[in-house]
Amino acid sequence: MSRPNPIYCAVDTVDLAEAANLIRQVASGARPAVGGVKLGLEFFLAHGAPGVRYAFPDPVRLTGIGFFLDLKLHDIPNTVAGGIRAVVDLAPTYITLHAAGGRAMMRAAVEETGAQALKRGLPRPKLLGVTVLTSLDGSDLAAAGVNGDPSDQVKRLALLARESGLDGVICSPHEIAPLRRECGTDFVLMVPGIRPAGSATGDQKRVMTPRQAVDQGASHLVVGRPISQAADPRAAAEAIAREVEVNNV
C-alpha cells in the first residue's frame, strides 16, 4: 500500500544559503523526497519574509510540496491576529500558535486567517495548535504548575484547539492514537519527535519511528536532524519515505 508523502523536513538553521541548499536538495525536481518543508522561529527572526522567499522560491513551491511556518504565536488576540496578517502573503500551508494562548486568541487567529486569505486570493493557511512541546515531560510540566501526565494536558489543549476552530495540533508521537480517537479523522496531527530506528534522540524526550507514527494515525511527520545532518539529505529523506511506503519516491 502506498500513501502521500507525510514527511516535513525541518530546516533548523539561520544560515540562509544552507537553508536554501537543503530545501533544494530534498524538495526540488519532479519527485520531491519530502511532502513539505518547515521553517521555524529562528530562521524567520533572522531573515523574515524575504528570507523565506529566497530559501523557498516559486520553482520549489510549484512542485506541490507544503510549507510549514512554525512561529508558535502566543500573545493577546489582537497581536496574534496581526502576526497572522503579516505572514499570509507567504502562502504557508500551516502556521502554528500556542493552544495555551486560549480560546479568544485562537478564534481571532482563525477569523484573521480566513479574512486575509480571501482578501488576497490565496489558499487559507491551516492553523495548528502547539500542545506540549516534545522536549517537556511530566516533571517539567509540574515545575510550571501543570499537574498530571503530559498526555492529559495534550488532550485538554487539543480539544480546546478543535473547539476554537483550529485545523489540527502539534503533538508528540505518543499522543497520536488517543488524539485521533478524540478529534476525528480530519483533524491534522503534525508530529515532531520522529527518529528513524538507530538515530540519536537529541533533546526530544518523547520519540517514535516514522512507520510507528504513521501507523498510529499521524497526518505529517516533522523530521529534522536525521535528514539535515545526513551526508546525503535527499537519500536520508527517501529512506524514511520508503519506511512509510509513500508513493512518490
Question: What features would you describe in this structure?
Answer:
The chain is of the alpha/beta class. Helices cover 44% and strands 16% of the residues. The chain has helices at 16-27, 41-55, 58-61, 77-87, 103-120, 138-143, 150-163, 176-183, 210-216, 225-228, 233-243, and strands spanning 7-11, 36-40, 66-73, 94-98, 126-130, 168-170, 188-191, 220-223. The radius of gyration is 17 Å and the shape is globular.
How is this fold's topology laid out?
Layout: E1 7-11, H1 16-27, E2 36-40, H2 41-55, H3 58-61, E3 66-73, H4 77-87, E4 94-98, H5 103-120, E5 126-130, H6 138-143, H7 150-163, E6 168-170, H8 176-183, E7 188-191, H9 210-216, E8 220-223, H10 225-228, H11 233-243
Parallel strand pairs: 1-2, 1-8, 2-3, 3-4, 4-5, 5-6, 6-7, 7-8
Helix pairs in contact: 1-2, 4-5, 7-8
Categorize the overall geometry: globular
Calculate the terminal CA-CA distance, rounded to whole Å.
Answer: 14 Å
List segments where confidence is low: pLDDT < 50 over at least 5 consecutive residues: none
Please state roughly what percent of the residues sit in beta strands, choosing from under 5%, 5-15%, 15-25%, 25-35%, 35-45% or over 45%. 15-25%
Instruction: Write down the secondary-structure element order.
Output: EHEHHEHEHEHHEHEHEHH
Number of DSSP strand runs: 8
Order of strands in the sheet with most strands = 1-2-3-4-5-6-7-8
Mean of all residue-level pLDDT scores? 91
Supply the helix-strand structural class: alpha/beta
Number of helices: 11
Tell me the helix content.
40-55%
What is the alpha-carbon Rg in Å?
17 Å
Largest sheet: 8 strands, parallel, barrel
